[in-house]
Amino acid sequence: MTTKTHSADGAITEFVTTMIGGQLFGMPISRVQDVFMPERLTRVPLSSSDVAGVLNLRGRIVTAIDMRSRLGLPKNDDGKPPMAVGVDLRGESYGLLIDSIGEVLKLADDSREVNPVNLDPRMAKMAAGVHRLEGQLMVVLDVDKILEISPDKLAA
Amino acid sequence: MDDLLREFLTETNESLDTVDNQLVRFEQDPNNAKILDNIFRLVHTIKGTCGFLGLPRLEALAHAAETLMGKFRDGMPVTGEAVTLILTTIDRIKEILGRLEATESEPEGIDEDLIGELHHMVEKGMESMNTPAPSIVPAAVESAPLVVPTLERELRPGEVSLDELERAFQETEIEVAAPVAAAPAPAVVAVVEKVAPKPAPKKSVVEIETPEGDKVANQSIRVNVDTLEHMMTMVSELVLTRNQLLEISRRHEDTEFKVPLQRLSTVTAELQDGVMKTRMQPIGNAWQKLPRIVRDLAGELGKQIELEMHGADTELDRQVLDLIKDPLTHMVRNSADHGLETPAERVKSGKPEQGTIRLSAYHEGGHILICIADNGRGLNTDRIRAKAISNGLASEADIEKMTEAQIHKFIFAPGFSTAAAITSVSGRGVGMDVVRTNIDQIGGTIDVKSVSGEGSSVTIKIPLTLAIVSALIVEAGGDRFAVPQLAVVELVRARANSEHRIERIKDTPVLRLRNKLLPLMHLKKLLKIDDGSSTDPENGFIIVTQVGNQTFGIVVDGVFHTEEIVVKPMSTKLRHIGMFSGNTILGDGAVIMIIDPNGIAQELGAAASSQHEIAEENAAARAMAAEQLTSLLVFRAGSAQPKAVPLGLVTRLEEISVDKVELSNGRYMVQYRDQLMPLVQMENVTVRTSGTQPILVFADDGRSMGLVVDEIVDIVEERLHIEVASGREGILGSAVIKGLATEVIDVGHFLPMAFADWFSRKEMRVSATAQSILLVDDSAFFRNMLSPVLKAAGYKVRVATNAQEGLVVLRSGQEFDAILTDIEMPDMNGFEFAETIRADAKLSHTPIIALSSMISPAAIERGRLAGFHDYVAKFDRPGLIAALKEQTTEIHQAA
To answer: In which band, very low, low, confident or very high, does the pLDDT at B170 lie, cut at 50, 70 and 90?
Structure first.
């Protein structure tokens, strides 16, 4: 799934970094289609609380996923509009709502560490390891796991 | 060239290319059952189509190839020579097709060589299941494909190559040599002679008119639907951009952009139209072949079959259409082969000799429904059960627990066929699973219903995932939603002080609409998006919606406009929400949800059972329904036992505050709509002393009376079957309603209690000219209900309890101005009754009005043919009176 370039010291994966609820996350760049500002989000009644709504992105209907809710983080209250990372899964488009987008990082696969055992279980389900960067940790997100939203989990 | 033929050529050429590819793959991977299944189906389809088009040579070849492949499926080892042989057969088919295209008729010729070889291969394969035959043939046969292309340019290629193949086979296959060599050789010569003169003159024409590139196969191009989908997206995008530009230009007066923008706007609209058109086709296109198929099948099977087609102009998305074409053909063939009985059998079971296959397509609640129904013997549950067990689909214990409907579903399992003998029509077990696969692909559902002896029907429900529909854009809870207009019957604005206002029976909102009570659902409550902003409970826009035979109102906050929307499927993450059938992008670029009226109807909870539906369908077809549903108002008065009255008789439900009830002259009265309305109490009912008093209002000709009740319980749809007649005054009898013994009250008893002259006043007034009516109905309930109504309207009524009695009365010399008759009666039904009357010279001038609880276009048509002047619903009092007036005055004017 991820693009791997072989350099002298092993495989390297490029990550798009994002900030969600003050935590740095990374997604493999091969899975990211685009980054956009979600506009005119339409809420979907009776849907899972993780689904923020649907929107029109250049004629395609994109399902927006509230990453904060998905990761079990508190709601955004700084009033800043969210950004969205566009990903595809089996021909359908999704927009993952994040707080802000960061730079693209090239990181060696062998520097990735497994999830800490005490990671929040909601996050652990979607995390595919942790990279230690200077001064902070980047949690690698597994896009397929993010989109495993069970239909039973209905909004209250 | 015939359209059918043209289509057949395009399709078959395409299929054959696929078969070629698949066969090669199959040879490399002989254990891949999926590829084999694919090939098998393709060849099966080709065989089938050839049969219908009357191309025996092609059909025979394809049939032989299919048989061989069937053996592969059964486990015969796949040898190179067998595959080569099939490929050779396919080349031969292609060659025949090429000539068919040029001459428009199947070239004459004999393919016994190939067919014999194929049969032989089958036998050999069976014998040497364990020791694959040594591949001697390939060397010889491989030359065949080389021969065919070079021959194509010559006038008699088929015959020559035939000869050569013949020789090849004779040399290699000693066993076949003797019989085959003798027979085909002269035939080939004969063919050459026959064929030679025919194509010769044609060929010159062909060369002038249709040069190389202009072959039929090339006249239409098949475009991948994805490409169209992409175009559609781009066009939508273009429309949105144009709208933005127009918006900008509106703000700037007199810009030089105005004119080109206008042009852009028209072009965009046309483009959008064009792209949409490329995708839509009437379903009739897929049905074109069916009449012929059915005719041929009827001949082949020795049955009399009539094919009815309804709704051929229902438009379908091209992709959807392509995918349902084959399933439809399969199902029609199944109906003809398995469903319908032979004329002898039909006569024995009391049915007309001719069986009917009814094909209908229509939009319903945002879906397209296609129904294939036959009035044959129905599915054989026992045989399906046995087959399911023998195929290991379910254990005997499991099957014991299943309902008939569940067992019937096994026919969709792969490789399932209950036909005892394999016929060339159907019965290789590729039928229903292909159907199911195709339907699944487009996200549709398929359902089978069957009633033993009555027939079976298969209903395909395809969601409008790709279709374009007209939708009403509404608002609820601050969001916009689209409601497919096909489901919308009418729009009603409800206001507190108007005629239409939202009323409540306990907590259930209802709307009174033309003397009918309509259950209401608040959209925002259904969708759980109630924003809390308390809207006036009596106000709102009501979308009167019809799904099947259910009518209900959806309350919304606002109604905007209608818009042609392109339905896009819901994301898989949202597809579980039954309330939505899809979503769409509006002209202003916003995404909105499309409401699925079926989902709402389900929420209302009253899905009729399949047994009932099929009974109803057949009833509609034969216009002989047994019992019909009646809307009943259930209430309590005087005792714990519930009471009921047909809802159609009740004019209004009211709750009046007790302090408005006055006692005058020993009777309770209430001021109601500027009139004094008497209140009538049933036995043991007392008017309350505080709070509000529920009453049922019955009104007629400006007078109203209120029946005091204790509590209004519910409105139910039930078959009204009065089981125990009552001796008590005011009670017609008891019926079981929702599992409870319920007393059905006799409104006719209470009306005179309010006004002693309720029935007599008008009779008095018009007695001199009173017109007389004969009312024929086998149900005591309706006789008792209708005669007061008719008397109240000023008619003299004579009742008869059945058609025979009615005829006796009529023939006794008594004259009537009109005859009212029920349709569903034992012994002689209303249609027969009407026909009898029409046939009688003395009576033929009397107008006959049919009374039925079953009103369908088919029934009305049947009624018109039988000689009815009018057709009125049983509970439609105003309609009945109007029809009577019309018929009787006409007579008077004529006289």
So the answer is: low
Residue of B234, B479, B577 with shortest CB distance to A43: B479
* B524 min Cα distance to partner chain A (Å): 9
pLDDT tens digits, residue range B453-501? 888 888 888 765 555 667 889 998 888 999 987 778 888 888 777 777 7
Top residue of B465, B571, B585, B588 to mutate, by most chain A CBs within 10 Å, is: B571
Residues of chain B with a CB closer than 8 angstroms to some CB in chain A: 233-234, 236-237, 240, 477, 479, 527-529, 568, 571-577, 579-580, 583, 585, 589-593
Q: Which of A39, A44, A58, A88 to mutate to test the interface with B (most CBs of B within 10 A)?
A: A44
- DSSP designation for B5: H
Select from B240, B479, B572 the Cβ nearest to the Cβ of A42.
Answer: B479
Inform me whether the pLDDT recorded for B895 exceeds 60: no
Inside any domain, residue A120: yes
Instruction: Decide if B696 contacts B637 (C-beta within 8 A).
Output: no
Q: Which residues contact B109 (CB under 8 A, 6 or more apart)?
A: B57, B96, B158, B159, B162, B188, B191, B195
For residue A45, the distance in angstroms to the closest alpha carbon of chain B comes to: 6
Mean pLDDT confidence for B405-416: 76
Rounded CA separation B629/B199 (Å) = 66
A60/B591 Cβ within 8 A: no
Answer yes or no: is A152 within a domain: no
Tokens 């259409």, residue located: B321
Question: Could you tell me how many CB contacts below 8 A there are between chain A and chain B?
Answer: 68
Smallest CA-to-CA distance from B225 within B327, B152, B341, B321 is with: B321
- Is residue A9, in this structure, part of any structural domain at all? yes
pLDDT tens digits, residue range B30-77? 777 777 887 777 787 887 777 777 788 888 888 888 888 777 777 777
CB B763 within 8 A of CB B770: yes
The tally of domains found in chain A comes to 1
- pLDDT above 50: residue B83: yes
Cβ-based contacts of A43 with chain B (< 8 Å)? 479, 529
Domain CATH code at residue A35: 2.40.50.180
Q: For residues A83 and A101, give the distance between their C-alpha atoms in angstroms, rounded to a whole number.
A: 7
Pairwise CA distance, residues B52 & B669, whole Å? 76
Minimum Cα–Cα distance from A146: chain B residue:
B573
Domains of chain B in sequence order: 3-219 (1.20.120.160), 225-280 (1.10.287), 284-463 (3.30.565.10), 468-604 (2.40.50.180), 623-754 (2.40.50.180), 760-894 (3.40.50.2300)
Cβ distance B583 to A61 less than 8 Å, yes or no, reads: yes
Give the Å distances, CA to CA, from B705 to A5, B676, B761. Answer: 89, 9, 16
- Residue B363, both tokens: 């939009």
| Overall average pLDDT of the B3-28 stretch | 74
Among candidates B574, B581, B562, B547, which has minimal Cα distance to B471? B562
Domain that holds residue A111: 5-146
A25, part of any domain: yes
φ and ψ of A130, to 5 deg: -135, 140
Q: Which residue of B has its CA nearest to A54?
A: B591
| Cα separation, B481 vs B758, whole angstroms | 50
pLDDT at B198: 38
Instruction: Quote the CA–CA distance of B373 and B417 in Å, as a whole number.
Output: 19
Query: Residues of A with CB below 8 A from B275's CB?
Result: none
Q: Where are the beta strands (DSSP E) in B283-436?
A: 305-310, 315-317, 355-364, 367-374
Cβ–Cβ gap B573/A149 under 8 Å:
yes
How far CA B197 is from CA of B102, B192, B203, B715, in Å, comes to 14, 9, 10, 79
Q: Which of B234, B573, B591 sits opposite A56 (nearest CB)?
A: B591
Contacts of B756 (CB under 8 A, 6+ apart): none
